[in-house]
Design goal:
The complex is a heterodimer of chains A (287) and B (584). Chain A is an alpha/beta fold. Chain A contains eleven helices and eight strands. Classes of the chains: A alpha/beta (287), B alpha/beta (584). Chain A: Its EC number is 1.2.7.1, 1.2.7.11, 1.2.7.3.
Chain lengths: 287, 584
């Protein structure tokens, strides 16, 4: 395979079964473009996905990939990256996958700061199970399981990431293809855990958080005076519930990824035919 | 002279019981004596009765017995707790000046040695060394050369500086001198030393060492008794071989981390105990259906639920054999001794990769926390063989591509084992999923493909049955009418019981392979009495034997949380034989 892969090399021959107009198309295209434009190849890329509409992405992209169980994609990605740091590891999920069943793993993945990229297709609804409240659904949002409104405030994943020591926190919008691709690229290039929450509208079940709503509400932090290196500014943008900020909200330039801190260097796949050199010393310890 | 000595130190958790016991066990081992240890501990950090027992002999020992010859009692309760095992002539070393001893009364016929442990320790440099003073006293009682203790103290405290080592040596000598000068008993012990070099280790350590030997480079786990020792052993050691240990946020993360590492091509492992395998069972199915090689150590304790975390149990057999929804192939290996923990761990990695499935490696608490001496030759690293199975690389990946150039990661081969391409292999890129999938790893609900993949996964087990040697370990008289079957740590106690049974000859088959398992039909049919010994209430292994052989067996179970002892097993075997014999 050529070293300069085109983004279509990351496409599989399966046609997505997402609903026409689904935000996930744009999210995926941006991921493929970002991978290709950062010099990655499908054979050296590992994509991990969980369950739900977002989880289908592993079928539509071409790379080494695992479609796992609901909410557990981040630990799988962490294991892949630590066992072979040469691989480009990308984890994809949805808001239910990442911030409900998998929220514990999310916080710990942020803390560990493994050098991988996490893209969350946030549509603020459970789509594949046909329209129940998700952890990012707005308060009072009416769904089949919350006919009187959700009555609980939404999870703020960017605030969770910031408070857990996140080193790269970005927000993008799937229909703004160029900007979305650019943000995923920056997440890939970041030395550490690159987290991109993507507004990826569900055209079938969410009639509140629509394309129109986002187009009207989004403020790109590039257009305002925002310093992503400032924790306090990041905090203010992230906690501002009046606006939908996109762009790199926070970036820690001093980020040292987990693998580097732990001295993990090469692939762990290569092992000798017998016990490794020095193994006899392990026995001697017990004398 | 007693050559088989049973020694113990008991007190409250936090009194340094474990550390002191280990020092004495190490001293004996370094003096060329065999050692078998057992721990009696409560699930708390401080307070609560705890004891560390050491049995030592010149011959190898494989179990505990109901006898205590020398007891260091740091609390009055220690004596009460061990009353059943103490006997006439037992020596009890205690510090009568301590409040914890209350108004201690030494039981009649026993020898109480009141030694001011704390005061002598302070003379040597600090009251913290009171247990070492007691060890010195024990050396005098057992005529054990104190120089051997010096070496163990060096090993224990060497990295804390010369002064600490010297103070401890002084403390031990003060203990010895005090007994020498203040008591003139004729103790009936004279511990012989030999020139043999033994290693002393427990089951968890043997599993950890076996994992590194087998090329395991990635371990993820969540702390849980009694499996944590594996993680602690690997931490700081596996890194020297290019590996990593990750302390996961929970068991679900642990097994998923290990799954990711395994898919990246590493030999990977996770470890836990009963409650943890419940949490892992969701991903266990994913591991199996994606045909990912993974070793899962389940160090059993008493259940159900949180049960008795620090007590012995062999209750998870059914959970390991049948746990997880749907039908999924898995192997279950159960070492029967500490050295077996090492060998079966290596085998578990080979089997996992050769057959691309999850392998449960299960030890029980007794095996995991017991330390025992071995000839170092039992852990010969030159004997380690690594078999990685059907791994394809750039040179042979082509023969596994379909007409459109897609890698057939789940190809339905004749032996049921598919090719495996590590990520990074050109042209090997593929997706795999926990959904039912086709040869390419893609979701399918096609009836024929479904049947083909289910059969393919089952076929691996048949292939393994044909190719591997899943034989039991055999002891005793091969022609005996009495057959004892067991699994896990009970082997040692049964062998000891057999030695006590002069009038009954016994054939023992100890089974380290629970799935796939050996065909025991001939052995069961040939015997008059068949006893199945296991540490659970329902006789889970006995059920398997009955199901496999279509013969009734007698179940010998124990579920008190305490390991089997040789004496009670000898009695069980005698009873069984007596029932079968026609009355004269």
């Amino acid at each position: 395979m050529s070293s300069d892969a085109h983004f279509t090399d990351f496409k599989s021959d399966k046609q997505p079964t997402w609903c026409p107009g689904c935000g996930d198309f744009g999210t995926m295209n941006g991921m493929m473009k970002a991978l290709a434009e950062t010099g990655n190849r499908p054979d050296e890329t590992f994509l991990v996905a969980g369950i739900g509409c977002s989880g289908k992405i592993g079928t539509y992209m071409h790379s080494y990939a695992l479609h796992g169980v609901h909410g557990r994609a981040l630990p799988v990605g962490t294991g892949v990256k630590l066992a072979n740091p040469d691989l480009e590891v990308m984890v994809a999920g949805g808001d239910g996958d990442g911030y409900s069943i998998g929220v514990g793993h999310f916080i710990h993945a942020v803390r560990r700061n493994v050098d991988m990229t996490y893209v969350v297709m946030d549509n603020r609804i459970y789509g594949l199970t046909k329209g129940q409240a998700s952890p990012t659904s707005r308060k009072d949002f009416e769904t089949s399981t919350s006919p009187e409104g959700t009555n609980v405030p939404p999870v703020n994943p960017k605030a969770l990431a910031l408070s857990a020591g996140g080193t790269f926190i970005a927000q993008s919008f799937s229909s703004d293809s160029q900007r979305h691709t650019e943000l995923v690229k920056q997440a890939i290039e970041h030395d550490g855990f690159g987290f991109v929450n993507v507004y990826s509208p569900c055209v079938t079940f969410n009639d509140v958080d629509t394309y129109d709503y986002f187009r009207d509400s989004i403020v790109d932090v590039e257009d305002i005076d925002h310093d992503p290196g400032s924790f306090d500014q990041a905090k203010d943008r992230i906690l501002d519930s009046e606006k939908e900020h996109i762009g790199v909200l926070y970036r820690d330039e001093d980020s040292v990824p987990y693998g580097e801190r732990e001295g993990i260097e090469g692939s762990m796949a290569e092992i000798p035919d017998g016990a490794p050199d020095g193994a006899t010393d392990l026995v001697r310890e017990f004398y | 002279m007693h050559e088989d000595l049973n020694w113990a130190i008991g007190g409250e958790a936090g009194d340094g019981i474990d550390s002191t016991g280990k020092i004495f066990a190490r001293a004996l081992s370094r003096a060329g004596r065999h050692v078998y240890t057992s721990k009696d501990f409560a699930s708390r950090i401080r307070g609560g009765y705890t004891a560390y027992k050491v049995r030592t002999a010149v011959e190898q020992v494989g179990s505990v017995v109901d006898r205590l010859d020398v007891l260091i009692a740091l609390t009055e309760r220690t004596i009460d707790e061990n009353l059943d095992e103490l006997h006439e002539g037992s020596v009890i070393i205690y510090d009568g000046e301590q409040a914890t001893m209350g108004d201690v009364e030494i039981p009649e016929g026993m020898i109480g040695l009141d030694v001011p442990l704390q005061r002598l320790a302070e003379d040597a440099g600090g009251s913290i060394m009171r247990n070492v003073v007691a060890l010195g006293a024990a050396c005098e009682v057992t005529a054990f050369p104190i120089e051997n203790l010096d070496e163990a103290l060096e090993k224990r405290f060497g990295d804390k500086g010369r002064a600490i080592v010297e103070n401890n040596r002084d403390a031990a000598r003060l203990g010895r001198e005090y007994v020498r000068e203040n008591y003139d008993h004729e103790f009936p012990y004279d511990l012989e030393t030999t020139d043999e070099d033994y290693v002393l280790l427990n089951g968890d350590e043997a599993i950890g060492m076996g994992a590194i030997a087998a090329g395991c480079r990635f371990y993820a786990g969540y702390p849980i008794t009694p499996a944590t020792d594996i993680m602690e052993y690997l931490t700081g050691r596996i890194e020297q071989f290019g590996g990593a240990v990750v302390q996961a946020e929970d068991e679900l993360a642990a097994i998923n981390l290990a799954l990711g590492a395994a898919r990246a091509g590493a030999r990977a492992m996770t470890g836990t105990s009963g409650p943890g395998i419940d949490l892992m069972s969701e991903t266990f199915g994913l591991v199996a259906t994606t045909e990912t090689p993974l070793v899962i150590a389940n160090v059993m304790r008493s259940g159900p639920s949180t049960g008795m975390p620090t007590k012995q149990g062999q209750e998870d057999l059914n959970a390991m054999l049948y746990g997880g929804h749907g039908e999924i192939p898995r192997f279950v290996l159960a070492p029967t001794s500490i050295s077996e923990c090492f060998h079966r761990t290596i085998e578990a990695f080979n089997l996992a990769e050769k057959y691309q499935l999850p392998v449960y490696l299960t030890a029980d608490l007794s095996l995991a926390v017991t330390e025992r001496t071995y000839d170092p030759g039992e852990f010969d690293m030159d004997d380690v063989e690594i078999e990685r199975g059907k791994v394809v690389d750039e040179s042979d990946v082509e023969e596994w591509l379909d007409e459109e150039g897609r890698f057939r990661a789940h190809a339905a081969t004749e032996d049921g084992v598919s090719p495996r391409a590590f990520p990074g292999t050109a042209d090997g890129a593929h997706m795999t999923t926990g959904l039912e999938h086709d040869e390419l790893g893609r979701r399918t609900e096609d009836e024929d493909v479904r049947v083909e993949q289910v059969q393919k996964r089952r076929r691996k087990v048949e292939t393994a049955r044909e190719r591997e040697d899943f034989e039991p370990r055999e002891f005793g008289d091969p022609d005996a009418d009495t057959l004892v079957l067991t699994w896990g740590s009970n082997e040692g106690a049964i062998r000891e019981a057999m030695a006590q049974l002069e009038s009954v000859s016994v054939r023992l088959l100890s089974v380290p392979y629970l799935f796939p398992r050996p065909d025991l039909t001939d052995a069961v049919e040939a015997a008059e009495d068949v006893l199945v010994v296991e540490a659970n209430a329902t006789g889970q292994f006995a059920d398997l034997v009955e199901q496999d052989t279509l013969q009734r067996v007698q179940s010998v179970t124990k579920y008190t949380g305490v390991r089997f002892k040789a004496d009670e097993l000898a009695e069980a075997i005698r009873d069984a034989v007596a029932k079968t014999e026609v009355p004269q």
